[in-house]
Each structure stands twice: as C-alpha cells, then as structure tokens.
Amino acid sequence: MWKGLTNRERAMAVLNYESYDRLPVVHFGFWTETLEKWAAEGHLSPEELQGVYDGSPAENVIAANLGFDFNWYTTFGANSGLFPHFDREIIEETDDGFRKVVSPTGVIILEREGAGSIPAEVDYLLKSRQEWEEHYLPRLQFSPERINWEALARLKETEPKRTDPLGLHLGSLYGNIRNWLTVVGSSYLQVDDEPLFDEIIDTVGNLCFQCAEAILNVGAPFDFAHFWEDICFKSGPLIDPRKFEAKVGPHYRRLTELVNSHGIHIISLDCDGWIDKLIPTWINNGVNTMFPIEVGTWGGNLIPWRETYGRELRGVGGTNKNVFSKDRTAVDAEIKRLRTIIELGGFLPCPDHRIAPDAEWDNVVYYCQRLREEF
Questions:
Q1: pLDDT at 294
Q2: pLDDT attached to residue 119
Q3: CB 73, CB 79: distance < 8 Å
Q4: 181 and 94 inside one domain
Q5: How far apart are CA 106 and CA 331, in angstroms?
Q6: For residues 296 and 227, what is the distance between their CA atoms, to the nearest angstrom?
Q7: Cis omega (within 30 of 0) on the bond before 165?
Q8: Which DSSP symbol is given to 16?
Q9: For tag attachment on the chain, is the N or C end more exposed, with fewer CB atoms within 10 Å?
C-alpha cells in the first residue's frame, strides 16, 4: 500500500470512493466540560484550554495528543443570520431565581444561574408581519460586513500548503428560522400566514446564496460545503416533510448548484435527531453527506440509507461516543461494528457528536489507535 497522502486528500478520497493509504481519524470537537475534566485529571494544562474552537490551533493540539487527525467541522462562512443580533436584556427576575431574558434571536428564554441545560423558551417576538418587517427583515439583508475578508484572503494565500480539509459553511435554510419562531411559532405561522412563512424562507435562502456567492467569487479554497440545520428530534422532523421539500428544497438546489459550479461536490449537512424523512429533500437537491449520523436512541446508521439512496449518499459520523465512558472491550466492539459500514465506502467514522464529559481520556486514545491499526 502506498503512503504520503495528506488528511485533506485522504478524506476526499474516502468520500469519493477513491483509493487511499489509510482512513483519517476524524472528530467533531469536545464539550468544554470534557476538556475541563481532562485538565483536572492532568491530561491537559490550563493553558491548553485557551482558544479552543472548531479547527483552532489549540484544538488541533489537543486532538493530535489524543490521536485524531482533524475536526470535520472546520469551516469558513459568512454571518448569514441576524445582523446585528438583538441586544440581550433581562426583562424579569423571579423570586425562585429564574430570569426572563431576551436572547440574541429575539426569543424570550428562562435562565437560572448555574443551570447547564438548554434554557426553556417562554415567548418569542416574531409573530406577525409587523415584527418581521420592523425587526427581522432589516437584519437579513446582505452586506459585505457579513464576511471576514481578511481571513478569507489568508485562506486563499495559504491554501496550497493546507493539509486538512476545509469546508465552506453555507449557513442554515430552516434551522435559524425555527430558532426565531420556536417550534410552536413556526407551526402556527405556516398555517395562519403562509405567505409570510414563505417570505421568511425565501429571504433567508437568498441571503445564504448571496453570502456563498460573494465568498466563492474571491476564489474557492474549499474541499466541501456544509449546512447546519438541527430541525429534527428523536421522533422525527420539526417541520412537515412535504412543506420542507416544496418550500426549502429549491434553496438547497440553488446553493448546491452554485458550489458545484465552483468545483465543490461533497456537500454535508449537520442535523441532529431522526432525520430519515428529510433525507429525500436533501439528497434530491444536491446534499450528499449526512453528519453526524447520531447513533442515539433512534439508531442512525448509514447502511439502510445506502440501501435506499445508493452510493450518492455519503456519511461522516456514526461512532457511538458512549463507548468512551466504558472500557476497551466496548471500544473494540464499536470498531468491529463500524467495519461493515466503512467497507461500504463513502464513509468517515467520527464520534456522533461532541465528545461528552463522561468520556475517559485513555478510551479515546485507544479508539484512535485502533482505527489507525485496522483501517
């Protein structure tokens, strides 16, 4: 077997069903609490916890010490969301220690000091055309300030020396909208005022397209493109799949055709939960790589998807990260389970979400070692 590929070349070879020297060992970042625990155990220094974010030099050092090659979620993109955000404002403090807060998205959330869970949403601003036109539409207009042009210039300049894959982040076509409207609000609005619901989707889709086009016109140093959505939960989608196909599908198509025209043909999408009913929209509109393939309670798995959609559907993810809290026997069993999926091709195993605080450092190291030995 020949050697000498970069991680960038390996990853693209795997996803394009081409020959490669070894399987790259991929991750999707770490919870902050995980790194803090490992530092307390002596595996990391306090200094190594500074400046850790997806694809940062600090994260790359930690990942390399564990045995990982790169973080798939290393991307560059424009700010295609609300610009500017709403100012955070505390509007009420309760006697039992809770605060009602206006979040940066205009949603009213319930916070409590020291709570680590996702805050409850108790109200939201975007309920009618009046709020849309006054508060949201002006924040969803394209401007050059949405793009870090200096960082983009550096990426273009250093591109020939880059050895890890880099994605162009295309934004979110519905996930952000769901965040602004909440699940309840979006469910009502698409029935009570469908023209407004459509206008919001079209506005966001057009903004994402303008941002991507502006970046690509500078020269595209990207290996893949990527969307973020998070619009499913453990029982299925947070939007009717038929409406999703009709209203959001054309915007996926327009964006995937744009990046295809710039030579980018691997297009991944991050959506948590049970995504099966939305896959047809994505695969039929040019999104060909599912990520992170959560094993979870719903048993995400590339195998049945491949049986349905064929080799056009790729995957990054699918490693059950729960084995990191157990022992080497559990890790060995997970490596054995992954073999069948890896042999299908077009698949990069990766912990199915950010590595959680129950993960043992030595188990993660062992997982990386076993992947290198086996594949």
A1: 87
A2: 81
A3: no
A4: no
A5: 43
A6: 21
A7: no
A8: T
A9: N
